Amino acid sequence: DLTSIQRHLFGYALDNGTVGVYKNSHRVWRVKSKNIPTSITAFDINGDGELEIVIGWNNGKVEARSIANGAAVYRDHFASPIAAVLTSDYRLRGNAEVRGYLFEGNAPDGTSKDGGGAATSLLADEISAEEKEVQALIKTKAGLVGQLKAYENAGLKTTKGTNVRVATTTKIAISASTTISHENVELTVSTENESVIKMIVIFDYDAGIFDGESLVIRPATPAPKATVQLPTLKKNVAATLHFRVLVT
């Protein structure tokens, strides 16, 4: 599901529980839930003059998030799944309202907001707990990316000082296997020459197979081959993994 926000900005909601905002082709932010978003729209729900992303969920939750950073500013819960979140001048008073409609076809009391600043049902401690978790994940990801760049820069300095360079033809091979004794998938990452692997970072942005968005492996002894044990999953899920491999 997509919703237009402003020029070059749009919000999106996916069946895998992901919602977020894009500016052109750049993703501004995203959050992922175990529930499924059923509807999404843009509306100034708290009367601050700025639009928010309003999302209806299959568990009866309606929430609004800041377009700038995804921070939650409003949340309410209902007994039935939300079928649609729509905006219109329902009362013909010249003011738009946002309403959440249940699958039964009605809009129960409490799902209508006129953007006049009354949308304050999200408690401060609830915002704090959720945003702390989101910010912690963002900081962890930034730290890992920064650490990887530091390793890469250190490797460049080392190779320049010793006139040793990683061959431009170096290729990375990745193979998967399973065994009867282990239910999880085992990945083998290897180079096709004498280059050794110092670190592997695997990013998973959508499937949620890691605790965060990435998995970092540092072999105790750098070698041309490294083994990665993926976490055991209790359900079948399709995942696209992005690999970054530091070799010297």
UniProtKB/TrEMBL annotation:
Subcellular localization, as worded in the UniProt entry: Cell projection, Cilium; Cytoplasm, Cytoskeleton
InterPro entries: Bardet-Biedl_syndrome_2_prot, BBS2_GAE_dom, BBS2_Mid, Integrin_alpha_N
Pfam families cross-referenced by the UniProt entry: BBS2_GAE, BBS2_Mid
GO BP annotation list: non-motile cilium assembly
GO cellular component: BBSome; ciliary basal body; membrane; motile cilium
Domain Ciliary BBSome complex subunit 2 middle region: 2-65
Record has GTP-binding as a keyword: no
Ranges where the BBS2 GAE domain occurs: 181-247
Keyword Transcription appears in the UniProt entry: no
Entry keyword set: Cell projection, Cilium, Cytoplasm, Cytoskeleton
Entries under PANTHER family matching the protein: BARDET-BIEDL SYNDROME 2 PROTEIN
Protein name per Swiss-Prot or TrEMBL: Uncharacterized protein
Organism expressing this protein natively: Aphanomyces astaci
